[in-house]
Amino acid sequence: MESEFPALWNAIRLGSRDRMVQILLEYGATIDVNSKDRNVLIAAAREGLLTAVQLLLNHGADINTKNDDNETPLIMAARFAHEDLVLFLVGQGARFNVADFRVWLRKMAQIPGKRWSTGVVQTILHHVTDICWRGEDGGILLSLAVAFADHEIIQVCLAEGVDVNRKHPNGATALFEAMLEWGSGGPNTYYRYSGYLRRDVNHRNKKSPTMIAGRLAIAAVLMDHGADVNVSADFNDDSQRPLLVAAASLGVDWAVQALIEYGADCNARAMVIRNPESTRRRFASVFRRVSNEQEPEDMAQGGSALIYAARWGYVSTLRLLLAHGADTSFVDEYGKTALEWALEFEHREIEQMLMEHDKAMGCSVT
């Protein structure tokens, strides 16, 4: 009957009892169809329906079938952290080579809401022996392990010689991820959610002491292996911002404090495009972000951590920076100092702090 496939598809997608799937198969429901984006075996793998997967395989489903994104059932099960199903599929002879690894890696790197399982990753690494650890493979895996605070996989990556300063395709290094938890959006998250910065700051600053300690422990491990505390990330406006500047831009006080203690340059500056209209932006082929490959002569110094803190009204962040010697005389790409931004946005407490600081330092206050 013509409705065979929709019935089986819906039974899988809705997580129906395995008995329903079995009945549909016994009545001749079609497994192999032309619509690869509605592959029932892959759908079952996505939902982690082990018994349903067994039934489908017993009725002739191709264990290595692919959808339109080149995902196999094993890749899908791995992406949604169904460890028992991953082990089952591997035991049934499902293929998982370096090309499959890179499909999984790409999906994990770019799609929000992914799930993580140390056991799944260990199984993957056991079966894929030709990973390019010192290239993009290792760099992305390290960033993912950092994002999920998976100390075991982090140590595997470091032992394999992953470059800790390699930039994830989203523009940030693993140390950025450890401190600011940008996830798949990377530095572009700052712009995408700029209208909700207050809410985002509350989320980042209200972490429990245990969670903050965990992030700092990961950061310390990365720096022990050569992570550069002053490295800049690529933003989608073609600017490059050091980690301290990015943390101050978001008002994440615990990160600002830790970075200064780690030796970050308190007066580091963002680098911005002198004439954005004259620069053609190239899109990365897979990750849909703008690559930043500007020549040095195209770049000019932008704001410092202090300027961004003043601009967005982060009183406690600005106080931290002043206490550690932040220079109040810098101007950004708009020709404005921290005080001028505070005046423009009427951040009165910050105005007062900056004027008192400059007076104490013997600077003229206009």
From TrEMBL:
Alphabetized UniProt keyword annotations: ANK repeat, Repeat
Per-repeat ranges for ANK: 36-68, 69-101, 238-271, 301-333
Protein name, per record: Ankyrin repeat
Signal peptide bounds: none
Organism phylogeny: Eukaryota, Fungi, Dikarya, Ascomycota, Pezizomycotina
Transmembrane segments: none
Gene Ontology CC: cytoplasm
Matching Pfam families: Ank_2
Lineage: superkingdom: Eukaryota
